[in-house]
Specification:
Blueprint: H1 2-20, H2 64-108, H3 111-135, H4 137-142, H5 147-167, H6 169-182, H7 189-202, H8 208-221, H9 228-241, H10 245-258, H11 263-272
């Protein structure tokens, strides 16, 4: 009987505690899952993905790889500038070479033409004594025939010139001087004086004074010689080599005045009015690392 009373008392106390508990307490959630798909709440909207790059302030600092790339870029720019400078130098050298080639062409190109002209004159001289022999037989019998002398002169002249072609100007000077001394009145003597001037110019070292004397001999002794325009032009070049610019220009103008139709007149005109130098390529500004 006593135990039943105690049991009743305990049940009463539990009920009192249940009734006196605050209403604001959270209820105990037994199951949080919906009973069906119809009762399920809608899914949350998708979160948008931002693909825009971060601001410049957020960029990571330069790495060693980026520094190496920048140094390589600067080296490439320097190489490009050097190549452009070399191209400008090559263009200037090509211009100088073309001018030298033009001078050399005027120096040697007309040799065959001069020799042919001399051969024609020799033939005319040989024909003149033969014509005189028909009218004055006794006089012609005592006059020496020039054919042997002319052949000898031609052989000696060409021999001296061949020494120049095969051995150079220094070795060609003695045989050409010997020709002038042996045949002072030869039809080849004007050319011999001219080539002596060329030999002295091309010698090692060049003898400008002696070359000038040989060219002046052509003009003073043989003013009507086909070599006169070239000799006068060479005097102008020698004055230019000696830095006598005023004398050089005066001689070049004299070439234009006395021999306007000659090839040397073209060269003299080029000296008096040289073509403008080719423009140098503009250098690119180097980029700076900002």
């Amino acid at each position: 009987m006593l135990s039943q009373q105690r049991l009743a008392l305990a049940i009463g106390m539990v009920l009192c505690l249940a009734v006196s508990s605050p209403a604001s307490a959270d209820p105990i959630v037994i199951e949080d899952h919906p009973l069906s798909t119809a009762d399920a709440p809608p899914p949350p909207p998708p979160v948008p993905v931002d693909n825009t790059p971060p601001p410049a302030a957020a960029v990571a600092p330069a790495t060693p790889a980026s520094n190496a790339t920048w140094q390589l870029y600067q080296q490439v720019q320097q190489l490009q500038d050097q190549v452009q400078q070399l191209q400008g130098t090559v263009e200037e050298q090509n211009h100088t070479i073309e001018k030298l080639r033009s001078d050399d062409k005027s120096r040697y190109s007309d040799l065959d033409q001069r020799l042919n002209t001399l051969s024609d004159k020799l033939s005319q001289q040989q024909a003149a004594p033969a014509a005189m022999a028909t009218s004055t037989a006794p006089a012609a019998a005592s006059a020496p025939s020039p054919s042997g002398n002319i052949d000898e002169e031609k052989k000696a002249y060409l021999g001296a010139y061949d020494v120049f072609r095969t051995q150079g100007p220094d070795q060609a000077i003695p045989p050409m001087l010997a020709f002038v001394g042996r045949y002072p009145n030869s039809i080849f003597t004007p050319n011999a004086y001219y080539w002596l001037g060329e030999f002295y110019l091309a010698a090692s070292p060049a003898n400008l004074a002696e070359a000038k004397r040989q060219f002046e001999a052509v003009l003073s002794k043989y003013p009507d010689s086909p070599k006169a325009p070239a000799a006068l032009y060479k005097l102008g070049t020698i004055a230019d080599m000696q830095n006598h610019t005023a004398d050089a220009r005066k001689l070049m103008q004299q070439v234009l005045t006395q021999f306007p139709s000659s090839h040397e007149a073209v060269l003299a005109q080029t000296y008096l009015n040289p073509p403008a130098d080719p423009p140098k390529p503009a250098r690119k500004k180097k980029a700076t690392n900002s």
